[in-house]
Amino acid sequence: MGEHHLTHPPVQELVLSVYFERLDPSKEILLPKFWDIVRGDYPVTSIKNPRAFIVESFDNVIEPQKILQPASPCRFWLMNESKTRVIQVQGDGFAINWMRNDQGDEMYPRFEPMLESFKDLLVKFREFVKTNGIGDIRTIQCETEYVSRILEKNIFKEFSDAKSVFKIAAVFDNEMQVDTDHFADSICFEVLQTNFSFLVRDSESKPIARITTQINPAILASSREQALIVNNVARGAPLSDHPIDGAVSFFRRANKWLGRVFRESITEEAHNLWE
Q1: How many Å apart are CA 233 and CA 157, to the nearest integer?
Q2: What percent of the chain has pLDDT over 70?
Q3: Nearest-10 Cα torsion for 20, 25, 29, 30
Q4: How many of the other CB atoms lie within 10 Å of CB of 173?
Q5: Mean pLDDT along residues 131-158
Q6: What are the pLDDT digits (tens) for 224-252?
Q7: Checking DSSP bridges between strand 176-180 and strand 194-201, what pairing results, if any?
Q8: How do residues 65-94 score in pLDDT, each as one tens digit?
Q9: pLDDT band, very low/low/confident/very high, at 32 (cuts 50, 70, 90)
Q10: pLDDT value, residue 141
């Protein structure tokens, strides 16, 4: 979503990820030992299926994205006690998450502190794999993802209230009256479910990233309330050859791109609620 200078953004999750050339597969068995370095802050562990990465392609309109199947056999999650912060490690990828828990008792930490945490942890991870002869980080793709949940009762109580949140739905604010064979029928907006993408070009008009937005209706399992789940993703290559600084530069710019797109997509009513 991008923070776009909102004081109370509806962020449920922020993920910063890098995909890199696969580390030495014969030594990937050593990756769980990275936990020894961070277990003081991340004492909870879990094993997940490996994650496939999407690499953006800007020279093929038929296939703008390539899904690279994971080479690693598994992915390790290292979590803090409240399970709101996660480090994800696999043989060709590294990510950190912040996730709002069910109690909602941890404030969203904001983008810059999350980015500093990502940089610090990736530096430690790179030193770990180099020291243990597992390889080195050669970043191929970076990804920023915001997951937001729209549930504020003063603007959203049911799916049709999406027109109070997003401009794309607001154009259908009024019922449409249609006379059909002597019957006065009415058409009204019901639910918003959509996705769209944006191409990011640099000052020389070179494509450097793609932004995708998905908006889906959902019914919360715990309360049965209607909500909108919004996924905003910026994805592209690192902005320099340095395996860490290139990713950090991408994330900083991506956050501004995502912020601008989100700011332009919401209504003034929604902006006033979250500012």
Answers
A1: 26
A2: 96
A3: -60
A4: 11
A5: 93
A6: 999 999 999 999 999 999 989 999 999 99
A7: unpaired
A8: 878 777 788 999 999 999 999 999 999 999
A9: very high
A10: 95
Residue 71 confidence (pLDDT): 72
Range 86-90 contact pairs with CB under 8 angstroms and sequence separation of 24 or more: 86/42, 87/38, 87/42, 87/121, 88/17, 88/48, 88/51, 89/31, 89/34, 89/125, 90/31, 90/50, 90/51
* Token couple for 259: 């912020």
Q: Are 124 and 37 in contact (CB under 8 A)?
A: yes
Residue 158: how many other CB atoms lie within 10 Å: 12
Q: Which two tokens stand for residue 52?
A: 């496939």
Query: Do the beta carbons of residue 260 and residue 271 sit within 8 Å?
Result: no
Dist CA 273 CA 165 (whole Å): 10
SS3 sequence of 187-251: ECCCCCCEEEEEEEECCCCCEEEEEEEEEEEEECCCCCCEEEEEEEEEEECCCCCCCCHHHHHHH
Q: What token pair was written down for 69? A: 């199947």
pLDDT at residue 58, rounded to an integer: 86
Give the amino acid at 15: V
- Cβ 11 vs Cβ 146: under 8 Å: yes
Residues 6+ apart with CB under 8 A from 29: none
Distance CA(98)–CA(87), nearest Å, equals 9
* 121 neighbors 87 (Cβ within 8 angstroms): yes
Domain residue ranges of the chain, discontinuous segments joined by +: 11-274
